[in-house]
Fold:
Amino acid sequence: QVQLVESGGGLVQAGGSLRLSCAASVIMFTMGWYRQAPGKQRELVARIFSDGSTKYADSMKGRFTISRDNAKRTVYLQMNSLKPEDTAVYYCNGGGSWTVPGGSWGQGTQVTVSS
Structure:
């Protein structure tokens, strides 16, 4: 199993910023971030391929940026202009395709945005 470990979550005020990191034991061609809020389904936040191409959920466009550092085997999610509705557990994901999540998941990191 590929091990993915998220970090960087925490409590921030609305309008603030936060950067999440995902350390991978093996960096994969396709990496991404998903999130799950209490009582809601897990949803795609962003995905990135090794060639730099990306995909974002509409609510994240212009606010979130996904990036990767293959040398450090790390994937990042820079979150700006955070809103209370961004509150969720954020999960790192590896493998899969644009439309189908891969089989490798991290344990998740909690992000809480206060009003």
Remarks:
- The two ends are 39 Å apart (CA to CA).
- The chain is about 0% helix and 55% strand.
- The first strand starts at residue 4 and ends at 7.
